[in-house]
Each structure stands twice: as structure tokens, then as C-alpha cells.
Amino acid sequence: MEVIDVQVERLIAGGIGLAHWQGMAVLVPFAVPGDRLTVTVQQRGNRFIRGEIQSIIQAGEGRCEPLCPYYGQCGGCDLQHMEAATALQGKRDILVDALARIGGVREESLIAPPLAAPTVWGYRRRAGFKVRQLADGRAVVGFYQRQSHWLVDVDSCPALHPALNQLLSPLRQLIAGMEGGNRIPQIDAVSGEEGCGLVVHMLVPPSASDRKKLLAFAKEQNIVQLWLQQGRKSGLQALRQETELYYSLPPFAMGFHPADFVQAHFEQNQQLVALAMEHCQRGEGALDLYCGVGNFSLPLAERFNKVVGVEGYQAALLRAGSTAKRYGLPHLEFRALDLANPENLSTLPEGLDTVLLDPPREGAVAVARWLAAGKVTRVVYVSCDPASLARDAAILGQGGFVLKQATPVDMFPQTHHVETVACFERDQ
Predict the structure, then answer these.
(1) The one catalytic residue among 157, 196, 291, 384
(2) Does the active-site annotation cover 280?
(3) Taking CA atoms, which of 191, 284, 349, 415 is between 20 and 30 Å from 84?
(4) What is the helix (H) or strand (E) element at residue 318, kind and residue range?
């Protein structure tokens, strides 16, 4: 096995350390900028080497001991070996690299300092627990191993909110005692401000006995929303609906369903929304694309005289509309529309001052092209993937938009994932 010595320079996409050796890029997971490492070569390409750390000759200043005993085995976190400030700088480096390499934005001064999270442990209020019932009747509840579909049986996760951590052991007992526990691949769990919700993914409908066990579990564990899902979200079936789940976005209490997308870090979401609103400013009209349950729509309605939220998932729109009605916002309306279909975009309202979009990880190519060809003067893009943001930024640039500022937001501490709020204005 070939072994080389390298000096790590910075982080790149995926939270991987970048070094160079004999003119080749060397990519090393779990590295820290400033590390001097002995690296075992795992893969050699024409211009790059992928390696694994064999030993640390000299640790970079930002290296620290991981808190979690499963770290390195579990695939959930990949930056626990870094001090918080080092991880934040690494996320900024990832964004800078993507915007320059893919988006053609090379003015590093346009990338603001990262927005740190108020809490970096015990913050995560959403989790997809992988579940296996073993042949001997025991159950495994946890997360996939790194680069594998084997499971890590997790007793406790320091990144999870305490309300979700407390469910791990009871869930293991529940699955072990079910007749159809071997037909449950995953349980999605979310902790609202009061109470938790579960979506149990099932390959076959539960027996009458298992339904009783699930309901008893929900009552014992303060699961106020319990749903079963076979296949797509359209197959959701309610087993228990005691109260509505909600998260706080002052002055709003935002209602949501366990199957809805909501940010995993409630406190950091408040900072994210506040930053986006600063960029949106105020005006006559705003369009909120991929609006979900109204995370940005309701705050926009405090700043604009007319707001239209657009989302493809009808159920989330119903909850957004209900929340808007509860707070008396008649100038806020919602429309169901598949935004990935370019033909649908011609039906969007025109003449609005600002467009905010918060697309899924794959980004918004069709919307970016529509914006580039239109007359909107300000676009605020909330992204969860630097690469797709950079690609869409290049499309906006072809339409005369100029990036004014991009701020990396630490929405998922201990991981390489980077949320970004980017403001574009059309060059007059």
C-alpha cells in the first residue's frame, strides 16, 4: 500500500481536506487545514489521489477530540474533529470554491463571514432513524455507517435534540416487539416546540396487534402526531393526531406535519430568516418560491403589500394558508405549482419587486432561467448546496444579475453541509 506525507491546505466540497503532492491534488477525509499527515493512497487518478489518514505527524491548530463515540463510523457527522471556528472557516472555503469554480464568481470579498449557530450540540430536531429487526428478535435503530448501508446501532447522538435522543431506546424495544418490525426500514422523527411527531415507513400494512403497539408507544412517549407511510407521501395514514406540531418564528408559531420539510435547527432558522429579510428589504410585492409551510412567506408579508407563496406539495400549502389566516394576512396567498416544469413558470405573477427562492438540494435551473429572462430586479436565493447555487448563479449572471453578497450559514453544525443566503441584483 502506497503511503505519502502531505500538508492539508483547506476544505473542499464534502468537508474533505485538500493537499497537493507531486503536482496532484490529494483528497483526505477527516483532515484539518494545517494538518501534516501520513496518508494511505486508496485511489489514484490522472490528476488526483484519494487517501485515508494513517497517522497525524502534526495536528492543525483547529483539530480537537470528537465528542461522539460513534464518530468516524456513523455517517451523520464529519466535522466533529474540528474546533467550531475552524469548521466555520472551512464551510466558507467550500462556498468560495464552488462559486469561483462553477459560478464564475471570483470576488472572495462578496462572501461574508459565516453565520454561526447559537447551539452546536443537541440542536437537531429532525432525524431519519434507520431501523432493522434482526433474525434473533433484537432491533437496531440508528444511522448508516460512513459510505455504507450497514447500520450503526446508536444509543445516543450528541447532535440530536434531547427529545429525539430519548426515543432511541424505546424505539428499539418497540421494533423488537412488533410482528412486522422486519418490514419497517425507517422512522422519521421530529421534535416540535411541544411534543414529537413520527412517520413510520412500512413495506406492508401493520397487523392489528402492531397498530395497538404503535398507538401505545405514542401515548407513552408524548408522540402527538403518529403517521404510517407506504411509498410516497400520498400514502400517509394517521394513527394519532393529538395536537399540531409547530416551531417558533417570532412573532409566528409555524404549524407543520411530521412529513413536511422544516429546518432541523429551529434557533438557527430564525437567524437565517432574519438575514434573508434584510436582503429582501421592503416593497410592493414579493414572490416566495418553494415556500413549504411558509417559513419565509409570513415574514415577507410583514414587509411587502402583496406576497405570493408557491410550492408543489399541496399539503404543506394548506398548512401555510392556515397559519397565514390565523395571523390575519389577507395579502398573502399561496399557489400549488411544480416549479421544475418550465411551462408552469409563465403562470407566475409578474411585476413584483423581489423573488425569494429556497429550492431543494438539486437547485432551481428552470426558475433561474425564468428569472434571467424576466424583469425582476432582486433575487434572494436560500441554498442548501453550494454547487447547485453556483450553477444557478451562473445562469442568473447571464441574465444581468450580479451577486451582491453570499453568507454561509451553519445550519448543520458538526457536518460539512452549508446553507447559504445569496442576494443578486440586476445590473442596471
Answers:
(1) 384
(2) no
(3) 191
(4) helix 314-326
